[in-house]
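Recall the central idea of this unit: under ordinary conditions, the amino acid sequence of a chain determines the structure it adopts. In this exercise we apply that idea directly, starting from the sequence alone.
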Amino acid sequence: MFDRHAGGERVVVVQLDLGSGEFDERLEEIRLLVESAGAEVCGLVTGRRQSPDPATFAGKGKVLEIAAEVSANQAELVVFNHALSPAQERNLERALQCRVVDRTSLILDIFAQRAQSSEGKLQVELAQLDHLATRLVRGWTHLERQKGGIGLRGPGETQLETDRRLLGKRVKVLRERLDRVQRQRKVQRRARSRGDVLGVSLVGYTNAGKSTLFNALTHTGAYAANQLFATLDTTSRRLWIGEAGNIVISDTVGFVRDLPHELVEAFHATLDATAQADLLVHVVDSASPSRERQIAEVNKVLTEIGASQVPQLLVMNKLDLTDLPPAVERDEYGKITQVRLSAKRGDGVPLLREALAEIALENLRSSREQYDKAGTDLSLAT
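Accordingly, the structure predicted from this sequence is:
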């Protein structure tokens, strides 16, 4: 599963089976995360425990096994596909004599690399500082190397002398800036709603094909790649869908299992746009054996950001990998519930445009009925 290839830091991945299931899928996901961070997986250590060891997460015997793997592969970094406490990270680094990062730090690092807009960079820095604040007990010793690398990019390298007071001040400034961004977004949404324009957000598990679908619908060049978190900054475009007129469609950051709370909190200004959308187009990799679990993970994050009540249209993407025909599925009331398509080949994309037009027209009729009813009630009251 873990083939050697050239380039990037040499990483030993550690994953323990704690009884949560889906062990092979978790291994594949951490491999993709490490590669998305630009590193090379050169070794793997697995094992089984009933519960994490309080001191080292893995236990003394397993730490010795990890150390042997690090030495044999001349690895520079150990990545745990788990959340580690600050004390566990510190103890592991002392025992292994190399840097150790957990799943949260790895995802934060990928976000630090991918942020392009000023807003995205603010959100990433806030998430990193929130995460680092819990690790000040380490005394910054892990940041004394100026080489960089996974877990060291972003604010860390320039914050060696930062204490809790200065860090807290910086976090406060970032939150104030993001609050201003959020207020601006709300003004824009109000202006859009006054124009009866349907707001659509593409959501889904990372690498489900959201950006490819966004490009197929809007004929734009949003960055799309076969890697986790290829999209970080939200991109919005107007889309003409015939009789229904224009809608605003947004491509958003993908979700992943155990998405770090720091990221959900920091990206609230962006994710709030998802919560305020009129419709969520939930893009699913229909070829993935984990699609049902991925759908559940996305819905879990949507609940956390207050978007669980927003209507959803399920889009089963990547039909080119399943050989199923494009189709539109409806419930017993005739309401569209699912569209099957291949964003890469374009098969079924016209069906999605028709579905969006139908939903937009229904939304427009509903809005006008509510407006007329409000006007009637006002006339009766006066």
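The radius of gyration is 23 Å.
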